[in-house]
Amino acid sequence: MPSYASYTEPPVLQFGPSRVPRSKSGKPHAVPLNARAYAALQRLWGARGESPYAFANAKGPKAGEALKDLKKGFHTALENAGIEDFRWHDLRHTFASWLVMRGASLRAVAELLGHQTMQMTMRYAHLSPGYLSNEVRLLDDVGGAKKANKGQRAKTRATGKASARNLEGKWRALQDSNLRPPGS
After folding, report:
1. Long-range contacts for 35-43 (Cβ within 8 Å, ≥24 apart)?
2. CB 3.0-4.6 Å disulfide test: which of 38, 51, 68, 173 passes with 33?
3. Is 97 exposed, middle or buried (0-12, 13-18, 19+ CB in 10 A)?
4. Are the CB atoms for 3 and 69 separated by under 8 Å?
């Protein structure tokens, strides 16, 4: 379980990234905070007392010192809530799943999680409602739309059933003539 205890500066009053100096891969990693996470961090910072750390031991001989590990507190919280068969990593999986289900790109999720390869992130692809549908729609205007500039998508001219029939007819013609779609 990672240790994120050593925040020694108050959270900035902007929604900037939270920086982890050394991630599991040994590299630094920055993740932006949403409003809820930012508010929680601000509350922790305000309640820290004299400690310079947002995550500090509250009492005992190490009171005020940075927490080295969050496992004990995590397991205590699970017990108090009556939650069984739940691991720290399940929070990370939920974070990624919720992002994908709300339409975040797999590339963005990979960056947020700090994945080194897209293969690690592809396990979440099935959760995206439009993962492949949105990409296939790029072909809706094959042969009928203005060519997009680099980095832009072409705008659709035709809509509805007529567009689908038009696309189907063009695709059959391409298959029959053994041609490849434009741009491939």
Report:
1. 38/11, 41/7, 41/11, 42/11
2. 38
3. middle
4. yes
CA distance 11 to 31: 13
Of 78, 104, 103, 82, give the one whose Cα is nearest residue 91.
78
Please answer whether residues 33 and 112 qualify as being in contact, where contact means their C-beta atoms are separated by less than 8 angstroms: no
Predicted confidence at residue 108, as pLDDT, reads 92
Is the pTM here over 0.90, yes or no? no
pLDDT in tens, 161-179: 555 556 565 555 554 444 4
Coil vs helix vs strand at 40: helix
Q: Which amino acid is at 141?
A: D
Identify the three-state secondary structure at position 109: helix
| Sign of the dihedral defined by the CA atoms of residues 98, 71, 78, 36, in that order | negative
Other CB atoms within 10 A of residue 45 CB: 16
Find the Cα–Cα–Cα–Cα dihedral 91, 95, 101, 105, rounded to 10°: -140
**Model confidence pLDDT, tens digit, residues 123-153:** 888 888 776 777 788 888 887 655 656 555 5
